[in-house]
Amino acid sequence: MLHVSSGLSPFHIHCIRSCRYRLAPPRTSPYLAAMRTSKHSTILTAVVVFTVALVVRAAYLWAAHELPTFVSPGMDAQIYREWADQLLRGQEWNEPYFRAPGYPCLLAALASLTGAGTFWPVRILQVLLSASGAFLLARLAGRWFTPAAAWFAGLAWALYGASVYFDGEGLIAGLYAALTIFLLYTLDLYRRSEKQGGRWGYMLLAALLLGLLTTLRANALAWWPVLLVVLWFQPGLSERTSARRPLTQVVVALLLMLLLVFPILRHNVMHGGGVAISTQGGINLYLGNNVEASGAHSVDPKYGPTWTREQITRRAEQALGRPLSHAEVDEYYRAQAVQFWTEHPGQAAALTWRKVRMLLNAREIGNNRVLHPYLRGVGRLFHLLVLIGFPLVAVPGLAAAVPLWRRFPPIRPALALAAVHLLTLLPFFITARYRFPVAPMLILSASGLFFLLRDWKSQDRAMLRNNVTLISGALLAALWVFAPSPLPSTSHSDDWAFHQGNALLRLGRYDEAIPRFYEALRSNPTHRSAHLNIGVCRLHAGHLDSAQMHFLRQWKLTPGNVNAANNLGAVAERQSRLDEALEWYHTAYRADPTHEDARLNYARLLHDEGLKDARAGRLQQAEFQLSRASRLVPENPTYAHNLALVQAAQGNITEAIETVETLLRRHPHHQPSQGLLRELEAGSMNR
User: Among 59, 219, 232, 345, which one is most buried in terms of CB atoms within 10 A?
Assistant: First the structure.
């Protein structure tokens, strides 16, 4: 019998024995191949791609920094900015987190530390982390595969258009993808570590990274089982350690991740949101599964793309006929999504198939801005990088995924994370920023083609034919990326002009905004809000008649438009037509009781009219007006206080005491009402 040295793995012993004393070149173990090629992943390659990534992103920031749509991006970015500003002001958050709170907390912390505003610090941080991601991907690909693979992986991320774009946005996507790359690199360090102390350190770092990802976006919870399985089954390079399952490490990793999200869970439970990272899961599920869903945008069937949390809460409460907690609202919309599947199974299946097609389509779908016109405005090069980025890495990445899963176990955690992430998107909707986190995994898979090509050179003809057949079939399937998009192709000229106008409006540049809104109207004379926003610009400029004209045009185009009605009330109030203003405010409030401006304006004018009636001696009319105002805005103690004064002036002491006591239960430190209650009680006892 041929004796072999004990330094070879059982796999190699089997190969040598099976060749019957003939030491033919063995098919190398993927683990040993990884060890031999790790020396090729040079620091030089990684440093070069880091520099390229940094330069490209700096060029993007420089090209975009004066664009109004970059300075004031709006939508989700504006929501995060306002949330961060509230945190900076020390305002308490007395409701469940509708979105995971990690990103606004980071914005607030960076703004507090740097004093440089809300978005620029996080943009710089995201650029640095993303450039570091190019460094780490190059190191991983070089360690796993070949020097050419290292260059490909690093440059693919450095020049990946969506990464360049998202790093400059005030959104989670850039930070989320960068931390994902750090997680992949940490898992590989865990696999390679020979020392138990090192494995513990990398395990803790991986759990920390995934816990932080979960505070940014709740769907990272789907990665928790993947991480725990990787920690349990993924062996180290030493055959001695592969037999021992690190149960303690798995348990500690789970506890650490739970510890990181525990403050969020505790806050949501205490404020009626249930055991959840965020309470938007139900509504997002419904937006992705209803009879009018496109599969690509978070558009509400009734309220459109500008729906608010208050609107969807009111609809759920009206449907069930009672007040609901935030957790109950979330559950209501989950049930609505399930009902869509049970009542319209054919349409639901067709919608899901449409999402699958969009999931792997070359087209990047923007949902927080009109993506492609914006990028053309920043620079044609950046637009080109976005156009070619996904197909460039998806076609080879998808083609190599199955062969790599079979031939190269170290890449399996990355492929598993990518597959799980894509599957979690299907129940909701598909956009560029939600698909974006799989790009690093696709880049690693695409760079694995260098390994597969080298590996096949050492195989016999039969095995080579089988592998060529497999990779050819996978490549043909991956070409599905270039299939026509299931979304209709539109010019977006009106939406882009409107988007630019909105950014200028938020910046207070009204004279520049108005031509953009007119441009949107030329492209689409029935645009949903162009007349409304022209009226807002005219109102800010003091041109009340012109503002009223545009608000009326908007009201005729979209009857029931609460913003138009509220703004018509504002114009009438400025022109001292108070009865007309009160009627418009009432109309707006009746159209949408959740509309904050309409509610506050209506209550304020009712209060002012009530005070006028009280001074004129019309106490019953004053009580009626003040009572309505206090019911509309119970958070304003002045309304209820003045109501109690009018009630007392009419001799209704008992009613006045009840009003003040109700007020003090809500505002226990309101000193004028405390004094009024003492006077009322003293007067009633004397009587």
Answer: 219
- Whether residue 49 contacts residue 134, with contact meaning beta carbons closer than 8 Å, is answered with yes
Dist. CA 274–CA 91, nearest whole Å: 22
Q: Convert 393-410 into a string of H (helix), E (strand) and C (coil).
A: HHHHHHHHHHHHHHHCHH
d(CA 500, CA 516): 7
Task: Answer whether 364's CB lies under 8 Å from 392's CB.
Answer: no
Domain of 544? 494-686
pLDDT at residue number 458: 60
CB 156 within 8 A of CB 446: yes
Q: Is residue 103 part of a domain?
A: yes
Question: What per-residue confidence (pLDDT) applies to 245?
Answer: 64
pLDDT at 461: 56
Burial 1-21 (b: 16+ CB within 10 A, else e): eeeeeeeeeeebeebbeeeee
524 and 478 inside one domain: no
- Amino acid at the residue 519: E
SS3 304: strand
- Spatial neighbors of 6 by CB under 8 A, at least 6 apart, are none
The answer as to whether 358 is a domain residue is: no
pLDDT given at position 159: 96
Task: Specify whether 124 is located in the same domain as 243.
Answer: yes
Residue 462 lies in a domain: yes
Task: Say whether both 443 and 534 belong to one domain.
Answer: no
In this structure, are 437 and 454 located in the same domain? Answer: yes
Tell me which residue has tokens 């009326």.
552
Whether residues 468 and 498 share a domain: the answer is no
Query: Does the structure show a pLDDT above 60 at 105?
Result: yes
CA atoms within 13 A on the CB side of 411: 33
Supply the Cα-derived Rg of the chain in whole angstroms.
31
